[in-house]
Amino acid sequence: RKEVEQDPGPFNVPEGATVAFNCTYSNSASQSFFWYRQDCRKEPKLLMSVYSSGNEDGRFTAQLNRASQYISLLIRDSKLSDSATYLCVVKLGNTGNQFYFGTGTSLTVIP
Amino acid sequence: DAGITQSPRHKVTETGTPVTLRCHQTENHRYMYWYRQDPGHGLRLIHYSYGVKDTDKGEVSDGYSVSRSKTEDFLLTLESATSSQTSVYFCAISAPINSGNTIYFGEGSWLTVV
Question: In CA terms, which of A110, B30, B91, B97 is 20 to 30 Å from B75?
Fold first, then answer.
């Protein structure tokens, strides 16, 4: 069983739409959670951390549900520039090496 | 900018030749990683380092070796390149964020083995 699973999509949405991605993780000892964005032929870049209380950054909202072991990312008012692959990343404990990655969800925002 | 530089950024090599990819960081982070990313597999850890001369294997380490003789440099060597090692390779570091750490990537090295 994979440590982190994501729906690969693709998600094709019109500009202005709201889109949500989910990601599940298997290890209940996971402590830190993140969403990354990866553009074509570029490196993954940190989009935002995810907290149990939820956090919001402009049009982006991330949520963590520890009981059900999933994290979510909501994008409101989608822009063409949001087109990318979104990766969820889970870290176990405080040791430096244990990061686990989803395979990514592809989003295309259509004019 | 996480201060990570990878070289070369693009390379084409022949099957059976050794290849070394270099990762250089400017901020003295302890943990450094090498990942490969392939369609359908996502990011897979090859090797990582937790200090000078301290390295360990990841999930896809066969055919790869690493060295870290200085804090700032982490080298990935393909002993004898094969076509299955055609991939994009990302170096990464673990750095503080909020109350923990997260991971930051270099720009990637595109390797084609022909």
Answer: B97
